[in-house]
Amino acid sequence: MQMQETYAAQGMSSIVLICWLAVVVLLIASMWKVFTKAGKPGWAAIIPIYNLIVILQIAGKPIWWFFLLLIPLVNLVVGIMTYVAFAKNFGKGVGFALGLIFLGFIFFPILAWGSAQYQAPAPSM
Known about the structure:
Blueprint: H1 2-37, H2 48-59, H3 65-68, H4 74-88, H5 94-102, H6 104-113
């Protein structure tokens, strides 16, 4: 009986791992496509810190905001503001930005393969 439970647990963990890897691959492909739509290099999606810098650029936020993302609690506010601007630059609203934050595995593919077009933000003075 003990052997069967072990095999069942291994099978379940294998299924969870495969599903997790599928979601990761979907997110990487989606971010790659979104970055390409915005005129940025797609490979930036797979570089851990650089992808945040590219997201800030797409959102039209200054690069130094990256350091704000390192401060606990401040990063929540800055992250939300960044994703709202990010969604706005693709013609989407605050609701879509919240979808990107909480359900990124659904909303990034919608943004990537949907009809949304990137509109660069006006340069700040």
